[in-house]
Amino acid sequence: MSKMNGRLKSALIFCLKLVVTAVPAYFVYRNIVMAPDWSVDDLYTLFSTHSIWPLFVALLCLGLSNFTACLQWKLLLEKQNVKLGYGHLLKLYYVGLFFNNFMPGNVGGDAKKVYDIRMQGGQDSVGAGLTATFFDRLYGLFFITLFALAMGLLFFMHDEAQRSFMWPSVWIFLGFCALFAALCSRRLGRLLCKVLTKIFPKKINERLIHMFERFQHFRSAKLLVSINLLSAVTQGLRILVHYFCGIAVGVDLSISWYFYYIPLVAIVSALPISIGGFGPRELLAQSLFARAGVPGLESVVIQLLAYFVSLLLSLFGAFVFLLGGTPATNTPAKTTGEPK
User: What is the DSSP letter of 200?
Assistant: First the structure.
């Protein structure tokens, strides 16, 4: 009976994600085909009149960003006393990218990375891998929001039509600050633990307390400087991917617009509410870039091209996974002195 309920729940969640994907996708399609000068030939024109070299540059930017992102993940894992070589972690990272692109919700790769860390280091490394991967994902979204705020203050603060779009970034930024304070502050952690002890059973409370203890490991000035630098490079390169995809389809738009709008698109596409981020991502990008004068077709194609570049690069992870490049028999992780 419990298995049937589980399957029913999974089917219901998938159906909801399908609806969240299909409804925005319909509006994206309608906005394109209802344009006065719309023609199917426009698609051919986009890809026939411009050089393909910007797509290669976009691929290079994304590839470099994966190297810096993996290094950031490695530093966070080391703070959790999980010691793995960079080359081996890079394989695990690419397998995670492959699962992110091919599993609904855009979080399957994170779960796969945690599982792989557990297979490398044993049961005790589950919490370490989960904490480092969770923090890594959150910090990337946090830092990309900083780009949007910086661009808003520098270029769009005095533009009444664009100034209002700073508020979502402001609230997201404040939300992340509150979350990191709750996770990494000893005082807030103790306060939350006291509150949780009155809500959850003892066994769950112990796990939550251990989780808060793990986040305390990230209270390091040297680590924060390193991950801030790495996040700046990683997220900047990933925004440049969209910029060069725009050049590939002939969009002549200042790079500041991408640094202002793409963070909001990235936040929405990271939410596990649709299938692979499709639908809400394209609708939001279409709505935002229309304010910069970009036609609906071009703005959607930019997002699809950026996803295609990501998909193409993540195929390396598919080869690693299919060839069995991340078995439990590889060099084990060292997880000395960490709480269970």
Answer: S
What's the angle, vertex CA 96, arms to CA 259 and CA 140, rounded to 5? 30
Half-sphere exposure of 139 (CA within 13 A, CB side): 28
pLDDT tens digit sequence for 117-147 = 877 765 566 778 888 898 999 999 999 999 9
The vertex-258 CA angle with 252 and 264, nearest 5°, equals 145
Tokens of 211: 């989780």
Residue 322, judged by CB atoms within 10 A of its CB (0-12, 13-18, 19+), counts as: exposed
Closest CA relative to residue 273, chosen from 99, 10, 19 = 19
Contact (Cβ atoms closer than 8 angstroms) between residue 109 and residue 98:
yes
**Distance (Å, whole) CA 76 – CA 215:** 10
Dihedral angle over CA of 99, 101, 106, 111, nearest 10: 10
**Structural contact between residues 245 and 52, judged by C-beta atoms closer than 8 angstroms:** no
**Cα–Cα dist 283/98, whole Å:** 24
> For residue range 107-124, what is the model confidence (pLDDT) as tens digits?
677 888 888 887 776 556
Residue in the structure block whose two tokens are 């939550």: 208
Residue holding tokens 């990272």?
Answer: 93
